[in-house]
Amino acid sequence: VRLCSVLKRNKALRCLKLGYSLYGMKACQALADVLREDEQLEELSLFDCHLDKEKTQVLCDAMKSNRTLRT
Fold first, then answer.
1. What is the C-alpha R_g of the chain?
2. Residue 50 main-chain phi, psi, to 5 deg
């Protein structure tokens, strides 16, 4: 969640790799907030994060409104 507060001010980061971590719903919602508004991030990796269906849905819904994310 702390990382997301920094990412909200992102002006340069293009690739974010958050793999091999366990995230709770609060962290997924914070990341989703970032994804909805971020205009720099092009790549996001959540490899092997063990996201359940609800967390995955939160992130996917946010990604739909992101115009810069490619992968």
1. 11
2. 55, 50
Q: Closest Cα to residue 39, out of 62, 11, 3, 17?
A: 11
49 within 8 A of 23, measured Cβ to Cβ: yes
Q: Is 18 exposed, middle or buried (0-12, 13-18, 19+ CB in 10 A)?
A: middle
Q: In degrees, to the nearest 5, what angle opens at C-alpha 50 toward C-alphas 34 and 53?
A: 75
Q: What is the pLDDT along the chain (71 residues), one digit of tens a residue?
A: 788 989 999 889 999 999 998 889 999 999 999 999 999 999 999 999 999 999 999 999 999 999 999 98
Tokens of 33: 């907030």
User: pTM here?
Assistant: 0.90
Tokens of 53: 């269906």
